[in-house]
């Protein structure tokens, strides 16, 4: 199954057997786009200022005040690594106006022993400023406990200057949902102790493979072309990730895919869109799998597996009276078990023959692998957007609600 | 907006303005189904055995060993209430074979000061038995630290008897994803200190309104009919819940809706299915909203709002230099802010005129309200399934993967 097209790029692999005729102009379009869009080459930036800041911060709690693209990327990387590495510093994310969760989170760490990363690309994000004001009224944000990350020249940058708070710019040609490998993601990740050099190295591997290796590039273009050509039939793309470490990565993928690919077409003005769904295995085999197997044929499925969990937990070799039939699981490691569950689910789906299926395998849980996954999905998103004739990098649809909210706030 | 059809049932309300011609036979079909399907009348059961057990358990940590329908219901209710009530006893859920999360969770509580609810309807769920074996090898499951909840006569029940462990039956005519108000959900919830009487009272209100009040019944049938009749156009149903307290309720909804409505039709054998998506506001306005607004017109949206957050957190009346334009949020409570955000998003969606939209409002965060929501969604699911000519209560699609896994485990 899933094996006649296998592109191995360093550690991460992606295998699928659906095919599509690739138009070679697609790679030209992306090469042109690379000259103006910033995410492609973030892996080459100078990160020494981020590392310098990180080495000077002593607080135990790193707190992101930011929402959407200003929070999801750092969250994806941190949660991926933390379950295995258990960082000494803890990352807390304040990305809502929900008083119940704000109350609970603000009580979960010592606000005095915290360093705040205030992140807003535009500088005027309502949720972010509301939370910042709240925190400022309790502890006063200053150069000892705060860094600001925002567009160069924004009102938030000016605020930072007025208080002598250090600030980093998000490059103008890097959108929020593509900003995890810019200062927006790297600064909080460096602060908490993530090896951001390794993270960028992983991203660089995939970027270089795409632009330098014809086979890798063709494989990714084929996948993108298939998704775009079947956007009306398979309008839902499920990412079925076999480990809890991917929960926030799934959320990052949902934003990247949904917000980039849900657009009016440039030329036709038609509404197009591919709907992302993040699933965690094996748990969601008991929730969502039935719908994939027997439901309407409107879904593709990508499985992500970890080859080496580097964990020795094992089902003991004990027998429960009357449950002897279950002894078939005895002595397997849980890592073996979860991967056999993934394989079994894929074989079952593959046998149906009308559900597009592919598998991504990463070697282990480390910063390079998540860096690879990030760039892989950013490239795939850019390719699909090109095929669909849409702008992957704007989000005009969310403006109307913001305008209505401003009117309401002013009592109009 | 959203107001020409408003059915108020006690506290919870649901308003929408899309219409559909309701076939009166639908209510007859449901009345017939009620005679054989168990979830409708769980709210009338005798809960004194559950309360008796709860009063005798002294351990601080209540641990569910169960997956899918054996975990999601209790999790939805507990997480909904815990952010506000902060229960003295903590609920932990072991619903995976992922060694990384199992390791982390088992280190997060004292295994000796824990009481285990071992829950599996069939009695032979691989994930559940694997985790139970692991725990048993560390602390030995016995009548002092464990209760078993399973089908009457299952091999797991016999195991419980062999060790003198108390067990409760899940009624044979109540499926896993409809079992939150049976012993499967009520026992762990009672153990942790949830007012399960109030929970059932909420459910009873909705059940009685549906079967006794023509207006309420008609409204729900109209909504179900609309979803079923437009299943091919609007094949995605987004539940946009405005508070983090709904995160696990969303997950419960995803299982209920997806696993019940993703089926082959009884008569045509055609694959049909409605795809559930759970979103949390305002956070996911910065992730998924763009796709709803500008993407393909394949989504309906239901918003859930809490009228009274019973929380006084307020944006302080302070001004940030250079950010004076943001002072329009000053002095609003966060509860006002989040609800204005919900209203603004709904007004924006409503103005588009081609996205089916409705709103559910609950009074506050308490057990009765979540009980109402649970029965509301179970009824809606049953109605849509009837309209789609499918069996809401089976899950044949997940069997194939289980058979393949068993073969793999036995090395075949």
**Residue share in helices of chain A?**
40-55%
Instruction: Characterize the largest beta sheet of chain A: strand count, sense, and whether it forms a barrel.
Output: 6 strands, mixed
Corresponding CATH architecture of the largest domain in chain A: 3-Layer(aba) Sandwich
What is the number of helical segments of chain A per DSSP (H or I, 4+ residues)? 14
Q: What order do the SSEs of chain A take from the amino end to the carboxyl end, as H and E?
A: EEHHEHEHEHEHEHHHEHEEEHEHEHH
The two chains with the largest interface, and their residue counts, are: A-B, 117 and 117 residues
Task: State the total count of DSSP E strands of chain A.
Answer: 13
What name does the CATH topology of the largest domain in chain A carry? Rossmann fold
Alpha carbon gyration radius of chain A: 22 Å
Helix/strand-derived category of chain A reads alpha/beta
Assembly context of the chains: homodimer
The CATH homologous superfamily of the largest domain in chain A is termed: Glucose-6-phosphate isomerase like protein, domain 1
User: Beta fraction of the residues of chain A?
Assistant: 15-25%
What count of domains describes the coordinates of chain A? 2
Q: What is the average of the pLDDT values of chain A?
A: 95
> N- to C-terminal separation of chain A?
60 Å
Which residues of chain A sit in consecutive blocks of at least 5 with pLDDT less than 50? Answer: 1-9
User: What is the name of the CATH class of the largest domain in chain A?
Assistant: Alpha Beta
Adjacency order of strands in the biggest sheet of chain A: 1-2-13-12-8-11
Shape of chain A: globular
């Amino acid at each position: 199954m899933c094996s006649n097209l296998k592109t191995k790029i360093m550690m991460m692999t992606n295998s699928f057997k659906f095919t599509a005729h690739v138009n070679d102009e697609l790679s030209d379009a992306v090469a042109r786009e690379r000259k103006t869009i910033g995410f492609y080459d973030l892996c080459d930036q100078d990160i020494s200022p981020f590392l310098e800041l990180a080495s000077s911060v002593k607080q135990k709690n790193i707190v992101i005040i930011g929402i959407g693209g200003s929070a999801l990327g750092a969250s994806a990387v941190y949660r991926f690594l933390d379950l295995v590495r258990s960082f000494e510093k803890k990352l807390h994310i304040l990305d809502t106006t929900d008083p119940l969760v704000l109350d609970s989170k603000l009580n979960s760490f010592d606000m005095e022993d915290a360093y705040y990363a205030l992140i807003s690309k535009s500088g005027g994000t309502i949720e972010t400023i509301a939370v910042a004001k709240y925190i400022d009224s309790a502890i006063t944000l200053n150069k000892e406990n705060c860094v600001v990350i925002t567009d160069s020249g924004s009102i938030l940058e000016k605020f930072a200057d007025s208080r002598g708070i250090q600030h980093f710019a998000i490059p103008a040609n890097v959108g929020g949902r593509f900003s995890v490998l810019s200062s927006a993601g790297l600064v909080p990740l460096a602060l908490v102790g993530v090896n951001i050099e390794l993270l960028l190295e992983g991203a660089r591997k995939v970027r270089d493979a795409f632009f330098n290796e014809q086979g890798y590039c063709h494989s990714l273009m084929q996948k993108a072309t298939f998704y775009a050509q079947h956007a009306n039939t398979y309008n839902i793309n499920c990412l079925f990730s076999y480990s809890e470490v991917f929960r926030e990565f799934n959320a990052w993928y949902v934003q990247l895919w949904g917000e980039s690919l849900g657009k009016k077409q440039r030329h036709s003005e038609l509404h197009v869109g591919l709907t992302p769904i993040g699933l965690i295995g094996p748990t969601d085999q008991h929730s969502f799998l039935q719908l994939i197997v027997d439901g309407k044929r409107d879904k593709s499925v990508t499985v992500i597996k970890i080859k080496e969990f580097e964990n020795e937990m094992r089902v003991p070799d004990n027998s429960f009276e009357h449950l002897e039939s279950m002894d078939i699981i005895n002595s397997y490691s849980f890592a073996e078990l979860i991967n056999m569950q993934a394989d079994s689910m894929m074989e079952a789906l593959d046998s149906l023959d009308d559900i597009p299926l592919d598998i991504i395998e990463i070697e282990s849980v480390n910063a390079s692998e998540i860096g690879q996954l990030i760039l892989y999905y950013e490239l795939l998103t850019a390719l699909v957007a090109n095929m669909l004739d849409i702008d992957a990098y704007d989000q005009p649809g969310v403006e109307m609600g913001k305008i209505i909210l401003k009117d309401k706030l002013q009592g109009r």
